[in-house]
Design goal:
The protein contains eleven helices and eleven strands. By secondary structure, it is of the alpha/beta class. The mean pLDDT is 97.
Length: 337
């Protein structure tokens, strides 16, 4: 595990303003995909020995902020099978912070059931609210927001602090390219749900000076009533908060401006967590050809887009794998011991 992070090496001014806990096993590998001419993968499914996925990168900064603020109880929300809820429950348990997770409906599956078991085993309190609107209102109108020892973490661990975890990820990728571990990707494909991963990568790639096109594949509903939740505009709002933080604390970045690319809406299907034929085919191919597990809600739909881009690509295409590929049985046994 690296003992520092590229974001601090490039911008040492942030050390004084950005608490950090070394929770993730970084850098994650980049690998060429066998049997493809231009296919590559960034293995963020391996960010942690017990439970990987993209949330651990964000939680390195989020948990550190909680500790700096002496937080005793954190609150978040997500679908019934939220991967972010699992990662947050594990890291909050390690940090000694109580966690409540408000959940909204998602099609049931073995993954959903296992994630709920993992969250409870890690000590999280799960409160099911049914619809997304009821869940969001509970989160935003919670009376504990008046308490200084409470922390409200947006779905997907995607708050401005967490987004910086993926600014760091893009800088990590740039270091791997500089070290000759892979060529500069022409395209990076990544799923987009709570916007934070894509926002961070967008900012980080610009800071790294990489001429790479980002394809964010929308896998969540674009709107909650009139409120944009997973749109290019929502990603831009997260980018703007992140760049404001960087401009404030890094003098060399005082003129930093970053623009979000349009999201790819073509792979969402019939709803959040609802499998698509293209997604299921991509999951099967990744399992058979690459021995890499994916799932139907996020990574499978993004993998379908990646395979389509790859089919006509003339340069390297990188799939950013945000799913946890670690076996969860050992983790559950440890939590229940």
């Amino acid at each position: 595990m690296a003992t520092t992070r590229p974001i601090f090496e490039r911008f040492p001014e942030l050390v004084a303003h950005l608490p950090w806990q070394p929770l993730a096993d970084l850098p994650t590998p980049v690998q060429a995909l066998p049997g493809t001419a231009h296919g590559w993968i960034k293995r963020d499914d391996l960010t942690h020995a017990a439970y990987g996925g993209n949330k651990v990168r964000k939680l390195e900064l989020v948990i550190a902020e909680m500790q700096a603020k002496k937080v005793r109880h954190a609150y978040t929300f997500g679908a019934t099978g939220t991967n972010a809820g699992v990662a947050a429950a594990l890291m909050c348990k390690q940090a000694g912070v109580a966690l409540t997770v408000y959940t909204f409906d998602q099609p049931d599956s073995p993954t959903v059931q296992r994630n709920q078991t993992l969250m409870r085993a890690a000590g999280a309190t799960l409160v099911h609210k049914g619809g997304l609107l009821a869940t969001v209102l509970t989160f935003y109108l919670h009376p504990a927001r008046l308490r200084s020892d409470s922390y409200f973490l947006f779905a997907g661990c995607s708050n401005p602090v967490g987004v910086l975890g993926y600014v760091n990820a893009a800088l990590e990728l740039a270091d791997q390219i500089a070290a000759g571990e892979m060529p500069v990707p022409a395209v990076i494909v990544v799923p987009v749900g709570s916007n934070g991963t894509l926002a961070g990568l967008t900012v980080g790639l610009q800071l790294a000076g990489l001429p790479t096109r980002l394809v964010g594949v929308r896998v969540a509903a674009s709107h909650l009533g009139p409120i944009a939740t997973c749109t290019t505009g929502a990603v831009q709002q997260m980018i703007d908060k992140t760049t404001a933080f960087l401009r404030q604390h890094v003098p060399a970045l005082r003129d930093l401006q970053v623009t979000a690319a349009p999201l790819d809406d073509g792979y969402f299907g019939d709803g959040y967590g609802v499998p698509t034929a293209a997604g299921q085919a991509a999951i099967a191919r990744f399992a058979t050809d690459f021995a890499i597990p994916l799932e139907a809600t996020y990574s499978g739909k993004a993998a379908a887009a990646f395979l389509d881009v790859l089919a006509s690509a003339e340069g390297p295409v990188l799939f950013w794998d945000t799913f946890n590929s670690r076996a969860t049985d050992p983790l559950l046994q440890t939590l229940q011991a």
